[in-house]
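Please, structure for the following, as tokens.
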Amino acid sequence: MTPDITVLCPDLRSPSVGAAVRLRELLAPWSVEIVGPDFGGGICSMYRQAGPFTVVPTRKLYRWPDFLWESRKLEHAVRGRVVIAVKAYMNTVSVALRLQRRGAARAVAFLDEWDGSALAGLSAGQRVARMLRQAHLPLEDSYYPFVERQLAEISLVLSTTRALRERFGGEVIAMGVDMRRFCPQPSDLVDRLRVELGLSGKKVIVFGGVVRPHKGVEDMLEAIARCGRTDVVLVVAGPVTDHLEALRAQPRYRPLLVVAGAPLSDDPSGINRAVSERLPLYLDLADVMMLPLQDTPLAQSQMPIKIFEAMAMGKPVIATAVADLPRVLDGCGILVAAGDTAALASSLADILVDPVKASRLGRVARERCEQFYSREAAGAHLRGLIEPLLMKASMS
């Protein structure tokens, strides 16, 4: 059966596959295929079982002139009447636009962060130097400004934050959470996992996802270290990245950190997939969730799905007032200034000694998530935006 919609990923080995899987869930019951290039690394270990995927072998896609014909392989693999390009990259947006220009599909861009923020933060001289170094590499960030200008031709831009909408236009959507999956778990299973991870007698904060520098994990660890308690630990339920390894190597943080995942690029036993499949169980270990995003252009453009997952689990949330977090957590979370680890530590200490407040915040957070950020609510909003494009594509 020919699919209604194609979601085009930039790299099937990267965690960006998760966004494609989530879009497919939100767009049900329409038929949706996920297409993406394989540079030789296969499919991201966290999502290998979330297929089917249309894998396009493109080992030389990353360089000129091979990009010219390798990207055509992606174009030919797309079968949907609407193609959603994940991220503003040469091998997603540019490919989708070629299809739209020849009338084969309507092009949509899905933006979950401003990938060009690092390049934009360089001086003019630094940008020129980087462009010269990357001139033969069309998938590197020197080409992002060119792709961002192409967004003006896209039929619809979907952004996950208001900052992205202000920069690129379009509509803001939430990546809704499955409230039936992300909900309080059976206590015996939670207790068993607690023992398995050596958490008996501990107060637990859980970070579920991929640890990157701008996500503030070091601020969580610093807050734990400063809150004056020796029974608080951070559990990372996600793959091991270089940044996480660097944090784990620091003597100050090592006793505060429990890691449940495996290296992102080397996981033959499927540990990361198993952790991802059991993520609600890991999240239910938490006494409190923290999301101290740093106040950077990249973080300002993001709305991490983990905030909705924490709310769905009925957990109290402490976050920084960055991006759209104040709007999302209005009345159901604790906000502190970005980079203020003293305030973060104080808020953590306060919530840990006030279970009544923690319970109330968690209950209100789940109710708010059900109303605005559930998969049903987000899916209805997204389908309402895509349906006119499907109709136009059918008539053309």
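The chain has 18 helices and 13 strands. Residues 375-395 form the longest helix (21 residues).
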